[in-house]
Amino acid sequence: MRLSSDGAYPLEGKTLADSKCVNWLFGRGLSCACKLSWEVPPKWENIPREEKIERIKGTLRKEMDSLTLDSSLIQRLLRILGEHTAPNWRNRFITTNWDYLLQREINALKLNVLPSWLANSQVFHLNGTVEELGDNSHRSLFLLEEDPAAQRCFTPEANKAYESMIWDQTFVVVGMSFECETDKFLLSALGRVEDNRPIGDSTWIVVNRNSQTLERSCSKISSVLPRATVKSVFADFNGWLESGLPELQECGAIA
Predict the structure, then answer these.
(1) Are the C-beta atoms of residues 126 and 97 closer than 8 Å to each other?
(2) What is the dihedral of CA 179, 32, 170, 177, to 10 degrees?
(3) Contact present, 182 and 146 (Cβ < 8 Å)
(4) Counting runs of H as helices and runs of E as strands, what totals does the chain give?
(5) What is the rounded CA–CA span in Å between residue 236 and residue 114?
(6) Could you read off the pLDDT of 35-62 as tens digits, one per residue?
(7) CATH topology for 20-37+70-250?
């Protein structure tokens, strides 16, 4: 993570009254596209929760160092956004994944000054991360798919992501199904403020190559945010990038 000079917070852009932000919500689909397809083995089902978490962290860290890993898709995304994000538009990255593939590629940019196309140098992990930092006290707690929504506690990282999202109106969802309880919690929390925050009239672009998952995800978003515009994109993420992100061009975020 790129930190400010005092080491406390990631690099952040100045808030501009006329700026707009695309909030990118990434699920497991992004990791799979980078050939990180590891899943928690079924035989770990009855392992005590804390022991399971430690096993997951250790295994995922090893998987992230695999020679078969290919992060070129993320690199391409960052390059496209860096070159084609429209003036007065920025991008924020939010994920439910435990891995830090996206954060690692942002760190590789070696940012000393935040570029105009980024809202924040931090990738917000809503369900925790296996990334090891000197201080994890501000980070989201590590949540398992089977954890009830009540397991989620308010943390500075999750709160900051949520407070930013409810004031924005443009969202891209990649590889998220909103099936597990912790992900459902995110949607319900957004829905609770849809009457009196800009997110109530937001636009959601949902990208998925699985037609059934795509339909379910769009339906869940529409049910929680009834005034929102939900656009389904039946494509894999790489193909959507190659097509030039037409839905983002349409809303003016991509020049």
Answers:
(1) no
(2) -10
(3) no
(4) 9, 6
(5) 29
(6) 999 999 999 999 999 999 999 999 999 9
(7) Rossmann fold (3.40.50)
